[in-house]
C-alpha cells in the first residue's frame, strides 16, 4: 500500500540517509535539497527541514528514523533572542520538556516556533512558563555594552546558554538529551566558557533546532516573549517606540532617541558596537 510519511530529521540523520542511498539520487524538485529513488520509495528532503517518504515501501525506509518517544523525551534545549537587534536586551532561555509538556505545546498550537507572530508569542509564552521547567536570562543593554568590551557576541551567547542550564539544573535534574540551537562550533563554545565555574557538558549542537526539538522551540518562544516585554518597558520608560532588527527603521529610531534623550543614554537601550551607531 502506498503511503506518505513526513519526518523532521536531524542534520546527522539527513546525511546518513543521503549517504545510504545516494546512488539512487534523482533531480530534486523545487524547495528540496535532494531526492532519492531507491526501490519502492521516493525520499525527498526539503529545505524546510522536512523529509518525505513516499511509495509502497515508505515505512521500510522511514522506520529507522522514527524514534520512540521514550528516546526523545525528556529533553532540554536552549535558544537566544535579541542578538540581531540594535535595540533591546539579549535573552536566553533553557527549557525542560517531557512528553506531556510536548503534548501541551501541540495543544497550544506550537509547531514551527519561528512562524509564530508576536501576538501568538504573547499568548502562548505565559502558558508555557506556567507549565514547564525553564530558566531565563536577560542581559540588558547597559550590562551588554560593558561585557562586550571584553567578549565577542558568540562568547556572550555561550556564557548565557551555559548559565541558563546551570540555573535550570537547580530546578530539575538535566536530562541526557540537551540541545543548543547552534550559533558557533562546539569546540569554540567550550573554549568561550572554559573560565566558568560550572560547565554543562554532553550538549548536542544543531542548527535550526527550534523546529526539531520541542525544548528548543519552547526556549525560543520564552526568550522572544522576554524580549517583547523588555521592549515594551523600554518604550514606556523612554516615551517612544523601538524598532526591532538593525536596518533603516532602527537607524531612524536611533536618531529620534538621541534627539530626545542625548547620545549618552543610547548605551542604555542599544548595542552600541552595531554599525547603526556609526549611521547616526
Ligand atoms: Mn537560535
Labels describing this entry:
10 helices, binds manganese (II) ion, 280 residues, 2 domains, globular, 5-stranded antiparallel sheet, 5-stranded mixed sheet, 10 strands, alpha+beta, Nucleotidyltransferase, domain 5, TATA-Binding Protein
Describe the structure in your own words.
35% of the residues are buried. The chain has helices at 11-21, 58-62, 69-72, 99-107, 118-131, 141-148, 153-171, 186-192, 214-238, 248-261, and strands spanning 3-8, 25-26, 32-36, 42-46, 50-55, 75-81, 90-97, 134-139, 177-181, 204-206. Helix 5 packs across helix 9. It folds into two domains: 3-65, 2-Layer Sandwich (TATA-Binding Protein); 70-233, Nucleotidyltransferase, domain 5 (2-Layer Sandwich), CATH 3.30.420.10. It is 41% helix and 19% strand. It is globular and about 70 Å long. The chain has 280 residues and is an alpha+beta fold. It contains ten helices and ten strands. Bound molecules: manganese (II) ion. Residues 79-80, 181 line the site of manganese (II) ion. Residues 79-80, 181 line the site of manganese (II) ion (MN).
Sequence-ordered SSE layout with sheet pairings:
Layout: E1 3-8, H1 11-21, E2 25-26, E3 32-36, E4 42-46, E5 50-55, H2 58-62, H3 69-72, E6 75-81, E7 90-97, H4 99-107, H5 118-131, E8 134-139, H6 141-148, H7 153-171, E9 177-181, H8 186-192, E10 204-206, H9 214-238, H10 248-261
Parallel strand pairs: 6-9, 9-10
Antiparallel strand pairs: 1-5, 2-3, 3-4, 4-5, 6-7, 7-8
Helix pairs in contact: 5-9
The structure holds manganese (II) ion (MN).
Residues 79-80, 181 line the site of manganese (II) ion.
Amino acid at each position: 500500500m502506498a503511503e506518505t510519511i513526513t519526518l523532521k530529521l536531524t542534520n546527522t540523520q539527513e546525511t546518513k540517509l543521503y549517504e545510504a542511498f545516494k546512488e539512487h539520487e534523482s533531480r530534486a524538485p523545487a524547495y528540496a535539497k535532494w531526492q532519492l529513488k531507491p526501490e519502492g520509495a521516493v525520499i525527498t528532503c526539503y529545505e524546510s527541514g522536512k523529509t518525505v517518504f513516499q511509495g509502497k515501501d515508505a515505512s521500510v525506509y522511514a522506520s529507522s528514523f522514527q524514534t520512540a518517544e521514550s528516546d526523545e523525551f525528556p529533553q532540554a534545549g536552549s535558544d537566544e533572542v535579541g542578538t540581531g537587534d540594535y535595540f533591546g536586551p539579549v535573552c536566553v532561555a533553557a527549557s525542560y520538556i517531557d512528553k506531556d509538556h510536548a503534548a501541551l505545546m501541540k495543544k497550544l498550537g506550537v509547531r514551527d516556533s519561528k512562524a509564530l507572530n508576536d501576538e501568538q508569542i504573547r499568548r502562548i509564552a505565559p502558558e508555557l512558563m506556567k507549565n514547564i521547567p525553564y530558566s531565563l536570562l536577560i542581559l540588558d543593554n547597559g550590562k551588554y555594552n560593558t561585557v562586550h568590551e571584553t567578549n565577542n557576541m558568540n562568547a556572550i551567547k555561550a556564557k548565557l546558554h551555559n548559565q541558563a542550564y546551570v540555573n535550570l539544573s537547580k530546578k530539575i535534574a538535566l536530562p541526557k538529551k540537551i540541545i543548543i540551537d547552534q550559533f558557533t562550533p562546539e569546540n569554540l563554545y567550550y573554549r568561550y566558557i572554559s573560565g566558568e565555574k560550572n560547565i554543562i557538558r554532553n550538549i548536542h549542537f544543531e542548527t535550526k533546532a527550534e523546529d526539531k526539538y520541542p525544548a528548543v522551540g519552547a526556549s525560543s518562544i520564552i526568550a522572544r516573549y522576554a524580549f517583547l516585554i523588555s521592549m515594551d518597558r523600554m518604550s514606556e520608560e523612554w516615551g517612544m517606540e523601538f524598532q526591532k532588527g538593525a536596518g533603516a527603521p532602527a537607524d531612524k529610531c536611533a536618531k529620534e532617541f538621541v534627539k530626545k534623550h542625548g547620545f549618552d543614554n543610547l548605551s542604555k537601550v542599544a548595542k552600541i558596537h552595531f554599525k547603526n551607531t556609526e549611521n547616526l
